C-alpha cells in the first residue's frame, strides 16, 4: 500500500497498518506475526482433521478401525494446541520483532506443518517402527525450533528481557527433547512404548504454565 498525498501537495499519513519510524520507536509489533501464525496453525488443524476419512462400513467394527487414526489425531491436536498457547503467551512479552525472529517463527511453522503428514502415517501404521520414529523426529525438531524462536525473541528484546526472566530454568523445555530422543530410539524396539513417551510429554505441557502470565501481571501492577 502507498500513502495517499495529503491536501495541499504534502505527502500525508501512511496507509493504516504500516509501521512508521515514529511508531513504537520504529519497531515492528508482534501483532502481525501472531496473526499470521494463528492462520497457519488453523490450517494445520484443518488438514489433520481432513485425514480422518469416513469408515468403509456402517457398523461398530468399521468405526473401531478408525481408532488408531483418531487417537493420533487427538495427540497431535493437543500438541498443536500446546504450541499455539505457548506461542501466544511468549509473544505477549515481545516489544520488538526483527528479521531473525521472523525467520525463526517460519522455521517453527515449517515443522508444525509436517504434523498432518506424520500424524496420518503413524495412524495408518501404528505398530511399525519408522512411522513412529518419524513422528517423534517431527516433535523433536518442532521443539528445537520453538527454543530457537524463544532465544531470538530474548535477543531481540535486549538486556533485561521480560521473556528471559519468565522462562527461568525451563525444566520442561530441557526434559522434552530428551524424552523425544528416547521415544525415537524406543520406536525401533517397541513402537507402543515410544507413543507412550510422546503422550507423556504432551501431559507435562498440559499442566498450565503461569510463569509468563504471572510476570506480566506483576509488571503491569
Describe the protein:
It is a single chain. With 221 residues, this protein is an all-alpha fold. The chain has one domain. 69% of the residues lie in helices and 0% in strands. The protein contains ten helices and no strands. The chain has helices spanning 31-50, 60-64, 67-91, 99-113, 115-124, 129-157, 162-167, 171-187, 191-206, 211-220. α6 (129-157) runs parallel beside α9. The longest helix is centred in the middle third of the chain and has 29 residues, at 129-157. It starts with 30 loop residues before the first helix and ends with a helix. Residues 1-26 have low confidence and may be disordered.
Name the shape in a single word.
Answer: elongated
**What count of structural domains?**
1
The arrangement of helices and strands along the chain is HHHHHHHHHH
Residue share in helix: 55-70%
**Main sheet summary:** none
- How many beta-strand segments? 0
Unreliable stretches (pLDDT < 50, length at least 5) are 1-26
List keywords for this structure.
10 helices, disordered N terminus, 0% strand, 221 residues
Set out the fold topology.
Layout: H1 31-50, H2 60-64, H3 67-91, H4 99-113, H5 115-124, H6 129-157, H7 162-167, H8 171-187, H9 191-206, H10 211-220
